[in-house]
Amino acid sequence: IKVYNINSKNLLAEYQKAVDAGAEVVIGPLLKSNIDILSEKKLTVPTLALNHVVGTENTDNLYQLGLSPEDETLEVVRRSWAGGHRSAMVLVPDGTWGERILKTFNSEWNKLGGQLVKHVYGQNFEYSVRKKLNKFKKVDMVFMVATPKHARQFVPIIVSKLGNKIPIYSIARVYSGTPNSKLDKNLNGVMFVDIPWVLNPNKVAVQMQEVLQPKSEKISKFKRLYALGVDAYNISMQLRQLEQQQWHGQTGQLFLDKDGIIHRKQLPWAHFVNGIPQLLDK
Length: 282
Fold this sequence. Notes:
alpha/beta
């Protein structure tokens, strides 16, 4: 393995340097802006980008693996629908990232025949959520996309307006990745999907985390990116095989679509109990 430090200015030169040095596969870049730049180049070896950029699909030899919130959103749709829910309230943050999630949920939910009450919250999120919840009390589930900080404020408001029997679903964004019963006690009952590395690490993951943990305080903050790196390394030499055979990775069950995008599915679920995530479906 040889590591090249790149930026937007030297990206293409360093990429070519790696190829000229005999690289059989290139892993990276991570930043979307750099993936955009690389997608305009004729790639001569399989290249696994660590993110997904819309509009760069079908670039020869370019594969894209990321922690897509859309994949997690689809898991929420599947589980909530299977749970008998038909009328959903969706709370997503303002901006293009939230719009992507809302679009994914809306599309799949409508295909199934569900009803959707959607709302985008901005800077004044507490007022925004309170105002919306005052108008809609007939939903049978809530899909909340929020950071831990915001979710800790949202959940008590949702419960006070809709009652504690309305299930609240979320994605990995709701959990910091580090158990904290004091801070997360307001999240009790919230169900969320996350990667195996975080919620249900296998023996290999546990061993790797034990090695990584003493080396840096940033491990907890970036643990999902470490898992992404592990999967990227493991599948890098067998990218084309993913078209026929799925890979059980640290970020989920991976499969490749016709556009070169590697998706994740069958992610583990947890819910907060006394402020601590507990696995569902053991």
